[in-house]
Amino acid sequence: MAYFLKKIAQIVPVLLIISFVVFVFVNVSGDPVVLMLPENASNEEIQAMQKAMGLDKPVIVQYGIFLLNVIQGEFGQSFIYKQQALPIVLERLPATFELMTAAIIVSIIISIPLGVLSAIKKNSPVDLFISGSSVLGKAMPNFWLGLMLVLLFSVYFQMFPVSGRGSLAHLILPAITTGTAMAAEITRMLRSKMLDVLHQDYMRTARSKGLNHFSVIYRHGLRNSLLPVITLIAINISTLVGGALVTEVVFAWPGIGQLVISAVHARDMAVVQACMFVIAILVIGANLIADLLYRVVDPRITYK
């Protein structure tokens, strides 16, 4: 328990740094008052709005006010939606969480069998094919893969919807698009780790006891290869979020990604700030969950 309290305490300075970075980017992006007022607004109206928003105060004071508002969950009002920014982002959060979870599941379903098979069939044509496919999967841009999947499975074969969210059929193509790069990376990592594990003494002992091949490989070999895979997934959550931003635009998926892209184009900085904080908390939470999973996979691990 003390370990996790320490980890949670470490989140506070991280969020402070994020808040400062967000504040700086918002300030260098331009004057939000100019966007909120009509083009023919007078200087008096601009100055009055700046005073009402506290933009006439010194920068350090503005940051202090911004930080206090963030602690209270207030990121300002969206001038597009005419309401507080955080509820708008939280309304889109389930869609993004659904897509990210599906992408992780897809990547695990693809990568674990391929990674294990590639290690078992080392230097065979099967291994070379899987390794080559992993490199290709990592190299393909999300937007290109998404468009190709839409053309092939939505337009040509008409197996899945082109865009939107609703049923499981709507989720399959976006999940594959988002999870492919992670699947490729996990496959390569798992192959490397399995090659080390297969020659360990406990694997030879398990075989000598007469255990069947499947049990030796998956119960003993795979389980002892999963720790770096969990670490890799946690590290790549931020990359997964970045991929989801592109995927949500390609498939018109109504999540945070599509929201933040439209907010950046419109320079709706209140929504951009709220999106960045929610995404940061998602990434931090994923890394905390990864720490918990270490103990589940290997009970010998202790936390100090």
In short, what is this structure?
The protein is built from 14 helices and two strands.
Average pLDDT, rounded to a whole number, is: 81
What share of the residues lie within helices?
A: over 70%
Strand content: under 5%
Question: How would the global form be characterised?
Answer: globular
- CATH fold-level label of the largest domain: MetI-like fold
> Quick one: biggest sheet?
2 strands, antiparallel
CATH architecture of the largest domain: Orthogonal Bundle
Number of strands: 2
CATH class of the largest domain: Mainly Alpha
Radius of gyration: 24 Å
| Classification by helices and strands | mainly alpha
Strands of the widest sheet, in order across it, are: 1-2
Ends distance:
9 Å
Low confidence ranges? none
Order of helix and strand elements from N to C terminus: HHHHEEHHHHHHHHHH
Task: Give the count of helical stretches.
Answer: 14
The domain count comes to 2
Oligomer state of the chains in this structure: single chain
